[in-house]
């Protein structure tokens, strides 16, 4: 489980994850899905220990879906992130904590604003304009610092993400397979080609 | 009536009724009135206080209107001791939601939580139901201002205007007549509330020591709760020409 990216813009969030599944020195799979759609306007990306990632993210996915079915309303991205953080915090002081890092990207249909949350396995939560998890962060956060603006359009956001992926291709010791990119906006969640 | 079936609280009678629940509602119909009115830009909850003795120490705070959380209040009719248990439960539930989601609990969900608890007492445990009805008034971003009513059976419904306790038949009648289809302003709702209260209260003279009054509205996008103090209630009575007027006995 390796690199995750998230970039917010004027009215969207674009996220990306590398689709490798690695075990020690072996590439197990390309095309691994490291995301889960929690509700029509909220997407969660996960990385960290492989089993924990799937287990925890599906647990969150089902709880958020159940909320939507029970109450007929969508939880806001902020509430979703708070819920996930609370679960991580409870897990932290249990016998074996989940080793999962998350990016939660959402579009709040009430305020019409996009939001991105960075969470880690120690139950940190930060509301950020852009974020990354994994080794990719070391190479790309500076790029995002330099080129990101609050009001970028989707096209500009995709170009910025391509810059980041390009940097990883240049400098990461391991070969980077294709990244899977997904955009969250008022119309929902969709895959985009990088 | 099959008396033998009354004693067990959680079973049906042969006619398919739950007597204990009905008896609880009967108890409430002897309690002092509380009413709620929804306005376009807010809501009002008003209640009659039981006999105020001069010897009573008033510092404790109201017995009829309570704050649930930042965006909800409620009015109570029935056994105050039962009400305290339920109010405590619902305040805790609201904070539990805030703890988990970092957002205020939507109004209807909070009402459902309490109603699920009340329903439990009609189905298992062998305990009597709670002898309290509630009128909840709140605001959330999903449905704006809302008014709900729940009773000992655990049923609830949303209302534009409703009342609980004694004299609800006449109060509901007045509310039905006076409530405007297109909605009221908060000021109109306040006036209507005090007017209905004055008609249903048994006492011959109206005073702020016999009334509890509260409003909920949005100010700069934030929910503002106002629990009226005695001077403010007096002012409202005065505005409506009801202050210390001797009413004809009903």
UniProtKB/TrEMBL annotation, chain A:
Entry's localization field: Cytoplasm; Nucleus
Similarity remark: Belongs to the peptidase T1B family.
Main location: cytoplasm
Taxonomy of the source species: Eukaryota, Fungi, Fungi incertae sedis, Mucoromycota, Mortierellomycotina
Entry function: Component of the proteasome, a multicatalytic proteinase complex which is characterized by its ability to cleave peptides with Arg, Phe, Tyr, Leu, and Glu adjacent to the leaving group at neutral or slightly basic pH. The proteasome has an ATP-dependent proteolytic activity.
Record bears the keyword Nucleus: yes
Subunit structure: Component of the proteasome complex.
Name of this chain's protein: Proteasome subunit beta
Keywords recorded for this protein, A-Z: Cytoplasm, Nucleus, Proteasome
Keyword Acetylation listed: no
InterPro entries: Ntn_hydrolases_N (IPR029055), Proteasome_beta2 (IPR035206), Proteasome_sua/b (IPR001353), Proteasome_suB-type (IPR023333)
One GO cellular component term noted in the UniProt record for this chain: proteasome complex
Designated gene of the protein: PRE1
Automatic annotation (TrEMBL), chain B:
Gene3D superfamilies to which the protein is assigned, alphabetical: Glutamine Phosphoribosylpyrophosphate, subunit 1, domain 1
UniProt record, GO biological process: ubiquitin-dependent protein catabolic process
InterPro entries the UniProt entry points to: Ntn_hydrolases_N, Proteasome_alpha, Proteasome_alpha-type, Proteasome_asu_N, Proteasome_bsu_CS, Proteasome_sua/b
Localization, UniProt: Cytoplasm; Nucleus
Keywords for this protein: Cytoplasm, Nucleus, Proteasome
UniProt xrefs under SMART domains: Proteasome_A_N
Entry-linked Pfam families: Proteasome, Proteasome_A_N
GO CC, alphabetical: cytoplasm; nucleus; proteasome core complex, alpha-subunit complex
UniProt domain Proteasome alpha-type subunits: residue ranges: 5-27
Function: The proteasome is a multicatalytic proteinase complex which is characterized by its ability to cleave peptides with Arg, Phe, Tyr, Leu, and Glu adjacent to the leaving group at neutral or slightly basic pH. The proteasome has an ATP-dependent proteolytic activity.
Family the UniProt entry places it in: Belongs to the peptidase T1A family.
Assembly mode: The 26S proteasome consists of a 20S proteasome core and two 19S regulatory subunits.
Protein name: Proteasome subunit alpha type
Gene source species: Linnemannia gamsii
Lineage of origin: Eukaryota, Fungi, Fungi incertae sedis, Mucoromycota, Mortierellomycotina
């Amino acid at each position: 489980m390796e690199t995750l990216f998230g970039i917010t813009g004027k009215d969207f969030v674009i996220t990306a994850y590398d689709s490798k599944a690695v075990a020690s020195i072996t590439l197990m799979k390309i095309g691994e899905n490291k995301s889960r759609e929690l509700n029509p306007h909220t997407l969660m990306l996960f990385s960290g220990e492989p089993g924990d990632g799937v287990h925890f993210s599906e647990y969150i996915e089902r709880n958020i879906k159940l909320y939507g079915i029970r109450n007929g309303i969508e939880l806001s991205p902020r509430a979703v992130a708070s819920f996930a953080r609370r679960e991580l915090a409870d897990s932290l002081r249990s016998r074996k904590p989940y080793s999962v890092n998350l990016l939660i990207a959402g579009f709040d249909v009430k305020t019409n604003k996009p939001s991105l949350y960075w969470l880690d396995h120690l139950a940190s939560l930060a509301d950020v304009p852009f974020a990354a998890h994994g080794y990719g962060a070391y190479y790309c956060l500076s790029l995002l610092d330099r080129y990101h603006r609050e009001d970028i359009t989707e096209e500009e956001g995709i170009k910025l993400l391509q810059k980041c992926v390009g940097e990883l291709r240049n400098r990461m010791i391991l070969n980077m397979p294709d990244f899977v990119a997904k955009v969250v906006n008022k119309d929902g969640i969709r895959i985009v080609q990088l | 009536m099959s008396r033998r079936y009354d004693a067990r609280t959680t079973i049906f009678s042969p006619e398919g009724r739950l007597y204990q629940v009905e008896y609880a509602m009967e108890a409430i119909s002897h309690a002092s009135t509380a009413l709620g009115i929804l306005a376009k830009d807010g809501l009002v909850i008003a209640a009659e206080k039981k006999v105020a003795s001069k010897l009573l120490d008033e510092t404790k705070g109201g017995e009829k209107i309570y704050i649930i959380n930042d965006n909800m209040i409620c009015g109570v009719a029935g056994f105050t001791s039962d009400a305290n248990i339920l109010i405590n439960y619902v305040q805790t539930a609201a904070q539990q939601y805030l703890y988990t989601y970092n957002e205020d609990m939507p109004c209807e969900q909070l009402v459902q939580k309490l109603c699920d608890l009340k329903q439990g007492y009609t189905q298992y445990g062998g305990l009597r139901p709670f002898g309290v009805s509630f009128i909840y008034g709140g605001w959330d971003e999903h449905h704006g201002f809302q008014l709900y009513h729940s009773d000992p059976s655990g049923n609830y419904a949303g209302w534009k205007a409703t009342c609980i306790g004694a004299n609800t038949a006449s109060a509901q009648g007045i509310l039905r007549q006076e409530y405007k289809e297109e909605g009221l302003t908060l000021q109109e709702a306040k006036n209507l509330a005090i007017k209905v209260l004055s008609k249903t209260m048994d006492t011959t003279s109206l005073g702020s020591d016999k009334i509890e009054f509260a409003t909920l509205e949005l100010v700069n996008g934030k929910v503002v709760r106002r629990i009226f103090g005695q001077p403010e209630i007096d002012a409202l009575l005065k505005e409506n020409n009801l202050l210390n007027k001797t009413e004809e006995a009903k």
